[in-house]
Amino acid sequence: MQTILQGNRTKNWFQKILIGEKRMSLNDPLANAFSKIESYENLGRKTVELIPSSKLLKNILTILNELGYVGSFEEVDDSRGGKITLNLIGKVNKCGVIKPRFHCKFDDFEKYEKRYLPAKGFGVIFISTSQGLMIHSSSKEKKIGGKLIAYCY
Fold first, then answer.
1. Residue 83 and residue 104 share a domain
2. I need a surface site. Which of 19, 25, 42, 135 has the fewest CB within 10 A?
3. Do 102 and 140 sit in the same domain of this protein?
């Protein structure tokens, strides 16, 4: 591992990041939130703090709460962009964002279901449409296409 000389002490770069001397920028807050949710689910934790919060993240968590994948969440407004405290119930197996955000017609959902979900009718794909954020099954019923955002099962 690479070491950094600092005065009389040597620290490796990973320890320096952990103790907060070097801050890393967040390129995609939604991807960071999903990876944190997935890792905390695998560890068996009951709560997770997602920093920073966004309207898209709140909408996705609301839909996941309605579908029964996650528990309730609470938004705390601090001066740094807010944070969300999410209660986990242990039902998320895998979740992630879809990059690049493919544009998809309502006829093409079958292809992306095969790519991102393990079985037909198992899990959800989030789609940003002209009528707002929705899951792939409801956009199939309304015959609306949009951009693929994320998946969860």
1. no
2. 25
3. yes
The tokens of 14 are what?
């990973």
In a domain, 5, yes or no: no
Total tally of structural domains belonging to the chain: 2
139, 129 Cβ separation under 8 angstroms: yes
Per-residue pLDDT at 1 exceeds 60: no
Give the contacts of 59 (CB within 8 A, at least 6 positions apart).
132, 133
In terms of residue numbers, what domain contains 55?
Answer: 25-87
- Domain identity same for 64 and 115: no
- Residues 6 or more apart whose Cβ sits within 8 Å of residue 89: 68, 69, 70, 71
Q: What is the pLDDT of residues 27-75, one digit of tens each?
A: 899 999 999 999 999 999 999 999 999 999 999 999 999 999 999 999 9
